[in-house]
User: What shape does this take?
Amino acid sequence: MLSHSASNGDSRHAALASPPPLPPRRIGPRTAMILGFCALLGLMAFLYFDSIHTLNQLEAASARVRQQFLSRENTLRDVRFSLYESGNILREYALLNTDPATRDSYLRQLHELRGSANSTIEACLASLPHEQKPPFEKLADELSSYWLLAERIFVASPSAKTALSLPNLALAQHATVLSLTREVSTINEIDFREAEREISGAFAQTRHRIQVVGSVAFLLGVLLTASTILYVSRLEQHAREKYEESLRSERELKELSKRLVDAQEQERRAIARELHDQVGQSLTALLMDVQNISDASQPPPSFTDGLRKIKILAEECVAEVRNMALLLRPSMLDDLGLIAALQWQGREASRRYGLVVDIIDDHFADNLPEEHRTCVYRIVQEAIHNCVKHAHAHHLRVVVEDDSDRLILAIEDDGVGFDARRHRGMGFLGMHERVTRLGGVFQVDSAPGRGTRLHVELPLATPTRAEGVAS
Amino acid sequence: MKRLRVLLADDHSVMRSGLRALLERQQNLEVVGEADNGRDAVSLSSSLSPDVVVMDVAMPVLNGIEAAKSILKQTPSTCIVMLSMHSDESYVMRSLNAGARGYLLKDSAASELLSALDAVSRGKSFFSSAVRKLLAEDYIRVLRQKGIVDSYELLTAREREILQLLAEGKTNKEVASDLNISPYTVETHRGHILEKLGLHTPAELILYAVRKGIIH
Assistant: This one.
């Protein structure tokens, strides 16, 4: 009789597939990618600020060079102008007259020219960097020699003038200074070209740097994009695998629990049948034989006493066996249907524990498939157990209804209740499991002091209903 | 004196042989056949036409309750005594609905079978004493637990009298001649009784009488 449980026990292990090992935790790729993105952003920021800074610098340098060139050219032009003017003055003085009044006027003009030329050249000298000063200093020296000679022409006596041939010296010096200005101008131009070349060199360098940094940033970007796509797709695949795995294990668990519940029910039925049919019937037959013997003859009193004791013992055994069988699995669930079995259960609860159980079946056809019948029966059994054990209820109301496609079971007690959000005993888990297995909905509603309400809905597939209670 | 012809139907052979041994010691009884399932019981009772069929409730192929219905459809005069392991009223009710006249628990069959056969052959009902006790206790307990007034108190003396006679298995006509009133009056009383007690069928009326301890 225990062959049921053995065969079920074997298949139970098969369903318990060991879970696949968890993949090792990976921190590497994510950190690397964050670092990569930081580097890329840093590189781009560097490129931006560096370029702007360099361009500003170059612009400033270019402007400065141009400015210097122009100011030196202006200085040279001024110097040339003063030479030119002073030459005119000397020439006029030599050609026209030498009266003292006119001479003073010429000398004053010459002083003015000298002053303006000197101040220009000094300003220019002050603005020049150290290494560029020598040509201008030389120019300034020669120019001041020229001025000395020129002034001496006015102040020297005519004899001295002729003796020293001052005008010739002055003219020679004039020519020297003039050629010097040209030289300085050339140098100035060369300097300018040099500076221009340096600036364009700096430009080229900057361009090169931008090219290099830009290419590196681009390559890094491509690399990061590729690795990000790879990483994300791998994560996605991983998540999908996980999801499928959890679905599978949930399915397996359901299957497992279904087998467990089935096995339990089959086992109970087998034991109940065994107890009831074999042991019970044998004892009953024994009783009858005893009765026959005691009726048959005129046995001595001690013999009759012994028989009476055997009879009492056998009667007790029969009652006990019957109760055990009924509690395991009431045969009326199969013989008479669900409502008869529920009513019997209610009467038993009333007899044993004083619990009043009302079974209301006004809208119930009582032709459920075997699985549904067992499910409802076990749920009511568990509810009665809860009422007696925990809820200390006095009254339990069970409503069974069905329509074309579903069965509704509502159970309500007036017991002490409990916090349904926090506590869920094994009994509720078992009920929930049975209902879920049949695709139904199971709800528990309870609060301390407010009793407990169970609501069960089971879907009914119309074709299977034909195999309900065999009448 | 005519011997009572009995058919035994039970799927357990030890049970059948025990019953047979019990019955064969009686002069006024005769076991005419044995069946080990419901369908055989139906066909044997049609071929042997026994006076009484002693029928196990739970049998393979066709259970005792359905077999009883079939037999009574063929020969309504057959008396059927159900033999059961169950004292619960669900089985008693189904058996009565099927038309059985007696309901006997297997563990008291040895001591009560002869009384049961005697009662049903005289047109009366018979219930094992354990069943009567249980039903009566349940009835009283439910009244107490629910705090309901016993509807029996609503019946008049005449109605109680008629209830007892009907529950003993008598027809309206028999009751009428017993009480010297017209069958129509009996029918009127009967309607009132059923209404006051919230009953609907003859089976329920008999069950009620058993609960109340009106019939033994």
Residues 176 and 201 of chain B are 20 Å apart (CA to CA). Strands of chain B lie at 4-9, 29-35, 52-56, 79-84, 102-105, 126-127. The longest strand of chain B covers residues 29-35.
